[in-house]
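Lipoprotein
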Amino acid sequence: MKKSKSIILLVIFSILILIGGLIVTRVIQQVTSGGFDRAKIEKQLDYMSEVYPTPKVSDLFKKFPKGFEIKYVLSDHSKAAYTGGKDIDHFIILTGKSETKEIQGVYYQEERKVDDEVRTEEISIRYTEDGGIVKLDGTPVNEKVSQIKFLFTNLTLNKEILSTFKIRSYFKNPVSGDDEITYIFKDSWVSKQLSASKETELDINFTYLQPSSPYLSMISLSSGDESLFEIIDAK
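Predicted structure tokens:
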């Protein structure tokens, strides 16, 4: 009896794997043949124009009176771990508090080598329009953090602009239904944030999650030596 149950479970498991493989294969075939609705995807992504751009970070309170969270990661691959060096990631997590209209959070850094990873202690930080990202006492965190400008303060995104970008890749998660699309584009201001020349072709990736909050966007950008990741999550 136990043997029969094991065989049945094995058969069911094999069928599930087969079905999953067929779904993924079909998605890949649609992408490689151009068989996805670009206009529909970009219409879905048009909601980001609510935030991109917002020149003053504090103006997010006007759009999201209940508060918001900003997650920003800047990664430096110029001395990559796979070449014997190390990757350095700068993590910034800020929360906009509706009660006080303060924007505070933490900063920490991770250094990654092939066989090791070191994370620094968290530093309490705050954001001000005049000083940018600083420690709670107003002093600079470090030179790299002092130069950081959030993407949404300068980058304009909407379906019209996205339609002008060249698509590098597209993927639809067959389980969650989420869409992920990567474009190639040039932007001198964004290139500067990534320590790249203004003529550098950049990869910009959007993950469209099926709506789960008043506003949620996930954007990643990469050039040769640096990449960044920005999430805006409204409460």
